[in-house]
Design goal:
4-stranded mixed β-sheet, abc type-2 transporter like fold, mainly alpha
Length: 373
């Protein structure tokens, strides 16, 4: 009981210390409100109001049908221009796409020939060019197929029945908002615990702890539970208020089950933050070290790019990172409504990784304390 009381009182001290740090409070408040909203609504991977021009050299019902298929919000209203104005418009950056429908296009299509439509793409606008290229091809092919079936008759031998699960309208907001919460849990847990230890070292209060009847394990556990609690409460509020309330993103699974997984992830990442703080001598050094650690954790854990798209070596290495398992269980619970029967392997992996990281961090922390004594 005395050990538990020490851990509790030291944790309260950490909370009061955080409450007196206005910059850190502003960072936490912004991350779990504005940052989530921006990440959800910016939609960098979604085509939005892409400028397109159409050169209609055929002037047929089919070419008019193709031109009318491009409309907001994916594209701006198509600018009908001449062939001579197409190059000038692309050079000036007025259009990202310029679609050239050749003469006699409809006649050749109905005759069973294979006429070509030229699509010019401004590749300097990389995101729109990469995504929009596929959009334009799909739209043109769909309009041509429907036109041919109507005027020539017959039924295509294959009918693709598309069923989209978990996100029927393919809303980027649904993905961006929830993934940002997952990334922020890792980001702030490492920063808060590392900053808490370095702040004590810079203020000289770590020496006060050394003369008190407390052990390094109690000091470390106090920082873990206090900073982990702050991140967990903020993530809960962001999920309920910002994601579900303001953005209207549905959560399919159990929120308490997700928060349990988040608590296990926090046990691992807060331990990692303390370990990094023992390596750094100042906050600038800790900040640079955090960048080197956080970028791979976020980019390679599956929250930005599916793990299946990465080389097998990277997939295997990232299994040692807690964020990989946290992202997997969070996506399964929040998107697909999975229960504990599905995500228990990720829970077990997080518990094991957290235990190992805690042991390594505690050993390093004891050595650091010993040199200061």
């Amino acid at each position: 009981m005395p050990r538990i009381a020490n851990i509790y009182r030291l944790g309260i001290k950490e909370l009061w210390s955080l409450a007196r740090d206005p910059i850190m409070l502003i960072l936490i408040a912004y991350c779990f409100t504005g940052e989530i909203y921006v990440a959800a609504t910016a939609m960098p991977e979604t085509l939005h109001h892409a400028p397109i021009a159409i050169v209609d050299e055929d002037a047929s019902p089919l070419s008019a049908r193709i031109a009318s298929a491009f409309y907001p919000p994916q594209f701006t209203t198509p600018a009908m221009i001449s062939l001579r104005a197409a190059d000038a418009g692309m050079d000036a950056g007025d259009y990202t796409f310029a679609l050239d429908i050749p003469p006699d296009f409809q006649r050749d299509v109905l005759a069973g020939k294979s006429p070509a439509i030229q699509l010019n793409v401004d590749a300097t606008r990389m995101t729109q060019a990469f995504t929009g290229n596929g959009y334009v091809q799909q739209i043109v092919l769909a309009e041509v197929d429907e036109f041919v079936q109507r005027y020539r008759g017959g039924v295509l031998p294959v009918n693709l029945a598309l069923r989209v699960r978990f996100n029927p309208n393919l809303e980027q907001t649904w993905f961006g908002a929830l993934m940002e919460i997952i990334n922020l849990v890792t980001l702030l847990s490492i920063i808060l615990t590392g900053a808490a230890l370095i702040r004590e070292r810079e203020h000289g209060t770590i020496e006060h702890l050394l003369v008190m009847p407390v052990t390094p394990a109690e000091i470390m556990l106090a920082k873990i539970w206090s900073m982990g609690l702050v991140v967990l409460l903020c993530a809960t509020a962001a999920l309920l208020i910002v994601v579900q309330g303001v953005l209207g993103v549905p959560v399919e699974g159990s929120v308490p089950l997700f928060l349990t997984g988040a608590a296990l992830d926090l046990f691992a990442t807060t331990s990692m933050g303390i370990f990094m703080a023992t390596l750094a001598r100042s906050m600038p050094q800790f900040g640079m070290l955090a960048v080197l650690v956080l970028l791979p954790l976020q980019l390679l854990s599956g929250s930005v790019t599916p793990r299946e798209s990465m080389p097998q070596v990277v997939q295997d290495l990232m299994l040692a990172a807690p964020t990989t398992h946290f992202v997997a269980l969070a996506q399964a619970i929040l998107y697909r409504g999975a229960g504990i029967a599905v995500v228990w392997p990720q829970f077990l992996a997080l518990a094991a990784i957290g235990t190992v990281l805690f042991a390594i961090s505690l050993n390093r922390f004891r050595k650091t304390i010993g040199r200061m004594a």
